[in-house]
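User: Fold this; tokens only.

Assistant: Input:
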Amino acid sequence: MKFAGFTLALAGIFAGNALGQTPTVGGLLNNYSYTLPGLPNYGIAQGSIFVIYGTNFSSSQIGLQSRQQPHSVA
């Protein structure tokens, strides 16, 4: 499972290469702990959420979408 997620992430990165841009991976960290490499308990556990930092992962920039909040609590 860990290998499949990593493979999917790399496939997305290399798909950008086909469009003529060169992605740069700046870091890969656990989403919750942000433990740096070389420290105890560093690593990505199977099934955990991780963050890939870098540039040129996409061919265009999409702004954040706002979600409407309900006017009343039911």
